[in-house]
């Protein structure tokens, strides 16, 4: 019971809510501006030629969490060095040939933009900087090659200074750690999955709710990998556990897929009237949820998961013998293939759940042997989509370069280097057309603010303190805009290009015509980038969504034909990564998101079974004769062809080949009596093939239309 004094000391709910929302935003605003002033002051003290470059770097690099600042700074520094080396090479080769030089620069920007689209998180940003830095250094000095090396070195020094100031302020002043986000996500997801398993096994979850929960799980998987990749930069404890967190992500994908497959198979059995099999197996399902508890309460903390892992280990050890006894007690008239398939999925689900719980429990200690067997998340991006992004960047930079050469516009170089930065930066955004347009709007606002600062305030102030006081409200406005939902592009454009236009140098030049020319060049180049995103193979057009959906389906082809080494992890992570990209493109369109989610379920169910089947087929060479092996390979080939390009004919061929392979294995099973391991292997392969067949016949899958046309009385809907 709380005392009056404790109630008085408790913060007001509204104040507490503000502290966790806008309060954190204001801390980020003040930290960013403070880091910008620190970088500017040091650059001026060192007499660097363009201190505003250091200040601009702060606004590009600064992030709310210290780990994100350090990660972005690391990749910015690497990208800057790569861009520096490439540009020095291009200048040495083509400095006397402007057309060849600008063409080579446009080609390099296109390659880096394609690399940015192909990669994820801040690795993508490293590619952006490799292209942008080359343009930033090369375009201004192309006409003064004698100063190229010195200019390049000072640019790197200015960028490095901004990186160091951002990292120091982010890590030392009211730091927010990505490691806390990782720990909270891991704990929340484990608890949510335990709750999900309990409710689904109890039959109390609607289909629409299952879809929402699985969509949230996909977002958690992608988000956790992003947070883990930056948390290692800030926290030694997270570095010690990074491998286990990556492994936990992989095991969660595997166990959630296995559980969904098991749940869907049991639903199909219910609808098809296989009540005896369902009644025989349901008692085992009801035993699973209580195992995931400690002292009568669901497991939440990693330290409490060890007890649950021990309970699952005991349950897993006894399960085969108990299932075997249940199987022998069934009516001989029942088709045991249905029972064997469900039992096999139950075995694998319990095994994956045990591994997931063990890894979660291992996070309670600093070091653990599970840290050394790491399974990495492998993102998946369409090469064609990345190539389109690179081609678009190449065309835009080439067009603006041609206009600069033909018009001799003094600010044409500014337009070229700005386009190189914006086209690459916006390509990584889910809405690149909107992003580039917002940056143009932010730059227009920065132009108005910059004119006030340069021509009205600078002539009337003296000393760094007055300079900081004059810049403070203008810089805070830009950072504040960037923290508002949906206005990131405006804030980013304002902050970066306010510094570019009005950022102070050691010797300030008052050139109104040059200022206005540069401002016009910046805004026009961004609008051209926005138009390019909208016209040149637009990223929000149906073609890209169809392309990514095909890549999602082709994950089954990868499962059928890829190298088995770590194939399951590549398949799981790639499939979810593609769904997250489709979801971003289909934002606000629930019908498209639901269709993508249906394909995700179909791909995961069939692809997992294909990988399991291939693993069994390669494990024991003597268990199957040549005819059976050939029929299994034909079935895998036909299933891969179906998912590569679904048609009624390919659906029929896949279904027929799968049925033939099942019949061949069951015939072979009748002739094999000893050893038992060979019989069990044949039963497992038959179960995998049978599950693939039931998944193909499911009328609620995206292939359901083919199922209803060709086999109107087979299959079952996804019951909840």
Task: Draw up the topology in text.
Blueprint: H1 4-9, H2 13-20, H3 22-45, H4 51-61, H5 66-94, H6 98-118, H7 121-141, H8 148-172, H9 178-201, H10 207-231, H11 236-271, H12 275-291, E1 293-294, E2 297-298, H13 305-328, H14 336-362, H15 383-407, H16 412-427, H17 432-457, H18 464-483, H19 488-502, H20 512-535, H21 542-553, H22 555-561, H23 567-585, H24 590-619, H25 626-644, H26 648-671, H27 676-697, H28 704-710
Antiparallel strand pairs: 1-2
Helix pairs in contact: 3-4, 3-8, 3-18, 4-8, 4-19, 5-6, 5-7, 5-8, 5-10, 6-7, 6-15, 6-16, 7-16, 9-10, 9-11, 9-12, 10-11, 10-23, 11-14, 11-24, 12-13, 12-14, 13-14, 14-27, 15-16, 15-20, 16-17, 16-20, 17-18, 17-19, 17-20, 18-19, 21-23, 22-23, 22-24, 22-25, 23-24, 24-27, 25-26, 26-27
Protein model, in words:
Keywords: Cell membrane, Membrane, Transmembrane, Transmembrane helix, Transport. Its main location: membrane. This protein has three domains: 313 residues, no CATH class; 193 residues; 169 residues, Methane Monooxygenase Hydroxylase, Chain G, domain 1. The N terminus and C terminus are likely disordered. A hairpin with a 2-residue loop joins strand 1 and strand 2. The protein contains 28 helices and two strands. The protein has 720 residues and is mostly helical.
Largest sheet: 2 strands, antiparallel
Contiguous helical run count: 28
- Termini separation comes to 43 Å
Shape: elongated
As a percent range, the share of helical residues equals over 70%
Number of domains: 3
Q: Unreliable segments (pLDDT under 50, ≥5 consecutive)?
A: 1-7, 712-720
Query: Whole-number average pLDDT?
Result: 83
Structural class by secondary-structure content = mainly alpha
Please provide the ordered H/E string of secondary-structure elements: HHHHHHHHHHHHEEHHHHHHHHHHHHHHHH
How much of the sequence lies in strands comes to under 5%
Strand order of the largest sheet: 1-2
Radius of gyration based on Cα positions: 30 Å
Number of strands: 2
């Amino acid at each position: 019971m709380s005392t009056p004094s404790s109630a008085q000391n408790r913060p007001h709910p509204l104040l507490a809510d503000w502290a966790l929302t806008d309060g954190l935003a204001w801390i980020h605003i003040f930290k960013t501006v403070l880091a910008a002033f620190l970088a500017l002051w040091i650059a001026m003290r060192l007499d660097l030629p363009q201190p505003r470059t250091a200040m601009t770097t702060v606004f590009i690099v600064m992030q709310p969490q210290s780990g994100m600042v350090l990660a972005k700074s690391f990749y910015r520094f690497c990208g800057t060095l790569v861009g520096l080396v490439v540009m020095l090479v291009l200048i040495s080769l083509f400095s006397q040939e402007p057309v060849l030089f600008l063409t080579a620069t446009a080609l390099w920007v296109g390659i880096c933009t394609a690399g940015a689209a192909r990669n994820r998180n801040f690795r993508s940003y490293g590619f952006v900087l490799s292209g942008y830095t080359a343009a930033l250094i090369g375009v201004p000095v192309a006409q003064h090659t004698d100063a190229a090396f010195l200019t390049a070195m000072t640019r790197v020094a200015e960028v490095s200074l901004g990186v160091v100031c951002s990292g120091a302020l982010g890590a030392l002043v009211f730091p927010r750690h990505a490691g806390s986000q990782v720990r909270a996500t891991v704990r929340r997801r484990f608890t949510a999955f335990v709750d999900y398993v309990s409710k689904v096994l109890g039959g109390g979850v609607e289909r629409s709710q299952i879809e929402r929960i699985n969509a949230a799980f996909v977002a958690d998987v992608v988000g956790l990998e992003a947070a883990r990749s930056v948390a290692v930069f800030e926290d030694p404890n997270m570095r010690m556990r990074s491998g286990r967190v990556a492994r936990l992500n992989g095991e969660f994908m595997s166990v959630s897929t296995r559980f969904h497959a098991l749940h869907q198979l049991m639903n199909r059995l219910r609808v098809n009237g296989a009540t005896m099999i369902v009644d025989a197996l349901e008692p085992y399902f009801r035993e699973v949820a209580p195992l995931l508890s400690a002292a009568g309460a669901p497991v939440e903390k990693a330290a409490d998961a060890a007890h649950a892992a021990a309970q699952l280990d005991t349950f897993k050890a006894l399960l085969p013998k108990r299932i075997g006894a249940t199987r022998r007690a069934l009516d001989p008239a029942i088709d045991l293939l249905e029972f064997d398939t469900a039992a096999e999925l139950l075995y694998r689900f319990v095994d994956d759940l045990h591994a997931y719980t063990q890894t979660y429990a291992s996070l309670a200690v600093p070091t653990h042997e599970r840290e050394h067997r790491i399974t990495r998340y492998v993102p998946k991006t369409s090469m064609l989509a990345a190539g389109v992004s690179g081609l678009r960047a190449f065309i835009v930079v080439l067009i603006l370069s041609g206009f600069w050469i033909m018009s001799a516009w003094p600010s044409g170089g500014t337009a070229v280097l700005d386009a190189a930065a914006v086209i690459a930066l916006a390509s990584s955004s889910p809405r690149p057309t909107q992003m580039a347009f917002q940056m143009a709007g932010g730059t227009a606002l920065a132009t108005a603010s910059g004119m006030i600062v340069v021509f009205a305030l600078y002539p009337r102030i003296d000393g760094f303190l007055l300079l900081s006081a004059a810049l403070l409200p203008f810089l805070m406005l830009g950072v504040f805009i960037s923290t508002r939902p949906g206005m990131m592009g405006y804030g980013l454009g304002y902050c970066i290009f306010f510094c570019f236009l009005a950022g102070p140098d050691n010797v300030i030049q008052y050139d109104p015509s040059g200022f206005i020319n540069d401002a016009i060049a910046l805004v026009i180049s961004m609008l051209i980038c926005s138009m390019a995103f909208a016209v040149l193979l637009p990223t929000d057009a149906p073609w890209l969504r169809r392309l990514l959906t095909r890549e999602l389906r082709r994950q089954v082809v990868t499962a059928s034909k890829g190298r088995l080494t770590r194939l399951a992890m590549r398949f799981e992570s790639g499939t979810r990564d593609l769904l997250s990209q489709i979801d971003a493109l289909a934002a606000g369109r629930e019908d498209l998101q639901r269709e993508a989610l249906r394909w995700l379920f179909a791909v995961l169910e069939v692809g997992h079974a294909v990988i399991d089947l291939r693993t069994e087929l390669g494990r024991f060479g003597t268990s199957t004769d040549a005819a059976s092996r050939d029929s299994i390979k034909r079935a895998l080939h036909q299933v891969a062809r179906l998912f590569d390009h679904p048609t009624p004919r390919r659906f029929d061929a896949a279904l027929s080949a799968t049925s033939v392979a099942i019949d061949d294995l069951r015939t072979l099973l009748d002739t094999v009596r000893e050893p038992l391991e060979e019989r069990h292997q044949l039963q497992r392969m038959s179960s995998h093939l049978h599950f693939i067949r039931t998944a193909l016949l499911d009328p609620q899958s995206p292939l359901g239309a083919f199922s209803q046309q060709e086999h109107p009385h087979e299959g079952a809907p996804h019951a909840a």
